[in-house]
Structures are given as structure tokens and as C-alpha cells.
Amino acid sequence: MLADGLTGEDLAMIPEHWLTYPAPPASAHTALALLYVFFTAAALLGNGLVIFIFSTTKSLRTSSNLLILQLAILDFIMMAKAPIFIYNSAMRGFATGTLGCKIFSLMGAYSGIGASMTNACIAYDRHSTITRPLDGRLSKGKALLMIAFVWIYATPWALLPLFEVWGRFVPGTYLIELSNNREQAKKMNVESLRSNQVAGQQSAEIRIAKAALTVCFLFVASWTPYGVMSLIGAFGNQDLLTPGVTMIPAVTCKAVACIDPWVYAISHPKYRQELQRRMPWLQIDEPDDTASTATTNTVSAPPPATA
């Protein structure tokens, strides 16, 4: 059975629903471990690049980009906990025990809830910029206040189940993916990517709109399976929720953290320019807007007077 070999505190953490299912085949564990190795490498590399470029490039350290940097950090944390999942998969079960479950779930709670709230802040910033272009720009102090609020807001939702004050963290599906059995963090990856150049603003806005549409599609595609499973678990026939079926939303939700940084790479002009400058071997073809900006701002001198 799925919980064979577990005793004491570890067995007490397993929801009764999973105790009736047989252990999954070794091939399923191997496939999941390999898939998560790929996810982890893509997410840590991509988000690591975003964190490095945005934090070390002065022109990118704007108030709005602080929120994007925060989101990249949370996506990084989301997949930094994946080694626990991979180890459990390699050992074919609940190998990390109660401590591993709590660490995995704590990181997931902070990264999931934090990312959803960060996206709300980004949406507010984008709304203010569009509706009040003259005075709606986010100040750095306000951006830092929003970031602090996100962490303060996420803390009780992460710590209450950790200390079993309200709900608790439990293993799910193959006993390798762990979650809060009362509140599962949802991540709404809707990015707001803003160019800092006045010249070419219309072109930048079109690219931002395309990026937003892409990320909205990714959000719907990635979280719809989780939403369906949650509704079935709450109001439907729970017999439909087999370990194999419920691994689908776990995989699709993690995939978003891998894709997000690559969305930045194809949609943020100044980020692409900085990548092109620091890593020319990537062969990024992003035109430098310095010349066009200078041309736009040049005022021709009047012709000399003739006698």
C-alpha cells in the first residue's frame, strides 16, 4: 500500500484518503524525479538570471522592477524546495519524514502566497501607471512597503499550519508532494513589465500587452487542473482523486515557475539588452534604443541668417 513502512508520527500525518491506494510503480517515481530535475534546473537558472540582472543593473532597479525582482525570488524559492521532492521520489515514498514535509510546505506557503500577493501589487502598479500616467508612478518607498507587506501577510498563513495552530501540513498524492490540508497557496503569475524609455513607448506597451496575454494563458492552463481537483475534493466524488490524477496539478503548477523568467527574456527590452551586453554568446538580437532616443530628442539648430 501507499503508506507501507511508515509508523508513528509519519503515519499519523498521512490523510486517510491515501491509505487505501497501492504504492505507485517505481517507473512513476523515476519519471517524476527526472521531470522535477528538469523543472528545477530551468527555474533556478532562469530566475537566478533575472535576480542577478535586475539586482546588479542600475537602470533596471526601478520601483516597478523591484516587484518583478521579488516575484523572481519567490519563484526561485518555489523550486529551491524541489530537492526534497526529488529525494522522496528517488526513495519511492515519504523518505524525508515529518521534518522534510514541514520544510517543503513552509517554503511552498511563502512562495505561493507571496507570489500571489506580489502579483496583486504589480497589478496595482500597472493600473496606476495606465490610468494616471502623470502622477501614478510608484515610488521606491511605496514599493518597499508593498514588499514588506507581502512577507508580513504570508507569515501567519505559513506559520499557523506549521505549528498546527490552524490546519497542518500533510503529504499528498504519492507522499512526495506536500501541502497544507486547509489552505493551499495559489500563485497567479501575471507580470507587469514596463520599459523605462520614453522613446518607443508605444512599441514597448505592445510587447508588454503580449507578455501579459501570454502569462494569463499560462496561469489558466497551469492552475485549471488544480482548481478542478480542489472542487472535486471539496464538493464532488473524492474517489476520482487517485494519486496519479492528483499529481497532474502539482506538476503543472510547478511548471509556471520555470516559464516565468523566460517570459521576461522575450518581453522586457532593457532586460534583453543587458543580457545581450553581459552574455553575447546567447546571440540575443535586441536593438539598442540609445541612438533612437538621442535622435528623437535632438532639436535642429535654426539656419544662419542671410544678409
Automatic annotation (TrEMBL):
Residues 290-300 have a biased composition (Low complexity). The chain crosses the membrane at residues 31-54, 66-87, 103-122, 143-163. One of its GO terms (molecular function) is G protein-coupled receptor activity. One of its GO terms (biological process) is phototransduction. InterPro entries: GPCR_opsins, GPCR_Rhodpsn, GPCR_Rhodpsn_7TM, Opsin, Retinal_BS. It is a multi-pass membrane protein. Pfam families: 7tm_1 (PF00001). Residues 46-264 form the G-protein coupled receptors family 1 profile domain. The keyword S-adenosyl-L-methionine does not apply. GO terms for cellular component: membrane. It is found in: Membrane. Keywords: Chromophore, Disulfide bond, G-protein coupled receptor, Glycoprotein, Membrane, Photoreceptor protein, Receptor, Retinal protein, Sensory transduction, Transducer, Transmembrane, Transmembrane helix, Vision. The keyword DNA repair does not apply. It comes from the Eukaryota. Residues 287-307 are annotated as: Disordered. PROSITE patterns: G_PROTEIN_RECEP_F1_1, G_PROTEIN_RECEP_F1_2, OPSIN. Belongs to the G-protein coupled receptor 1 family. This is G-protein coupled receptors family 1 profile domain-containing protein. The lineage of its organism: Eukaryota, Metazoa, Ecdysozoa, Arthropoda, Hexapoda.
